[in-house]
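Can't paste images in this forum, so I'm doing it all in text. The chain is below; anyone willing to post the predicted structure tokens underneath?
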Amino acid sequence: MKPEPAATDNSAADGAANALALATLAWAEIQAFVASEDRRPALRAELNLGPGRAGVLIRLVDGPMILREIAEAADVDPPTATIAVDQLQRRGLVRREPHPEDNRRKLVCLTEAGLRAAETARRIIADPPAVLTALDADDLAGLTRILGALNSPSRSEPTASDLEGS
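Text version of the structure:
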């Protein structure tokens, strides 16, 4: 009697492939949800601002900033930050004031109208969509736990050697 060839155990490989397929599906669903809840139209309708300009106003709520700080915070180059501040200033949302320690620099400050616009922008961006608030408390708790784990700074990306060992 001839011995039967050893059956290969594909269950681990099948499980990894299934996990990858599920992760791909989950990622696509997350992207579709975020895209469907785009806040740009609301920012444009209520404030005639895009997310970049709205973000500048929101950052200025904490206090005045110089242009270089605005550029760094917005992850843009200084000329782009200057253009944004010029536009916001023409609309009366910010003003430039002399820097108290350096006459070569200006501080960018919110005006009262800018503060109101920043508060509106923050509300538009932060208010959860109705479809999310319609979920029951258990589903929201589970979703919050999962997203918290995904956003945890302690999680690490797998390295190539981690993947090779799988």
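Residues 11-36 form the longest helix (26 residues). Strands lie at 65-66, 94-98, 106-110.
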